[in-house]
Amino acid sequence: NxxxxxxGWSRDAVDGGLQTLLIAGSIKIxxxxxxxxxxxxxxxLERKQIGKTEFKIESATVTTPQRIxxxxxxxxxxxxxxxxxxxxxxxxxxxxxNELAGNAGGEPPLPENPDTSFLExxxxxxxxxxxxxxxxxxxxxxxxxxxxxxxAKIIGERLPSWNKLQRLSLHVKNVPDSDxxxxxxxxxxxxxxxxxxxxxxIPLISNLTQMLRDDLxxxxxLFDQYWKEGGEKLDADExxxxxxxxxxxxxxLDQQLV
Length: 258
Hints:
Blueprint: H1 11-24, E1 27-32, E2 53-57, H2 64-75, H3 86-102, H4 117-123, H5 127-136, H6 138-171, H7 179-190, H8 201-236, H9 238-241, H10 245-254
Antiparallel strand pairs: 1-2
Helix pairs in contact: 2-3, 2-5, 6-8, 7-8
């Protein structure tokens, strides 16, 4: 229509007009006829995609108070956005939320990662409908941000202790009576209890530390006993008695008995 004789616009002008209307929120992307199933953000639509893209007039209206609430929500994720640019920052907001959810759980002993399927529902919308989807779910999204941030913080605090407990566990496997404590370590992992209200890890670290200390003391005493008995036996040996101090030292050095 606009490239025809009535207007005579160039293809550049038409494409530029479409992108301007898209950024302004007057139209939205409804479909991109390519192998991708994703609808690009308004600022991410490439020039080469325009000819394959279907646009629709934006029918949904977002009020100023609604935009204010959306900006407040984005600010909870440290996303600063200017008035009228809320839609441009929604993909960044969703990406940060997914990343936060990834830090709020994981493999045992961590809890399972939170369900983020509702974020996909928001991502599949476009234009003002996407802004309204965020606005309508703002309380759910705010709760998710708060909960996931809290979980990620606790994980950051407790995971180093768990890693220490794992290292200690490797050293006590042959220590007598360690099975009881090691079974408690396995129980925490199997039941994903790292974030329990009561920290179950710190007491086990103390127990394993004391167990290793006691075993090292036992081995030290045993070594001292053998060293003393061996020294007495050596001193009583007639052949040893015939050696001078230098010869004795050389023999001890050669046998690593200094």
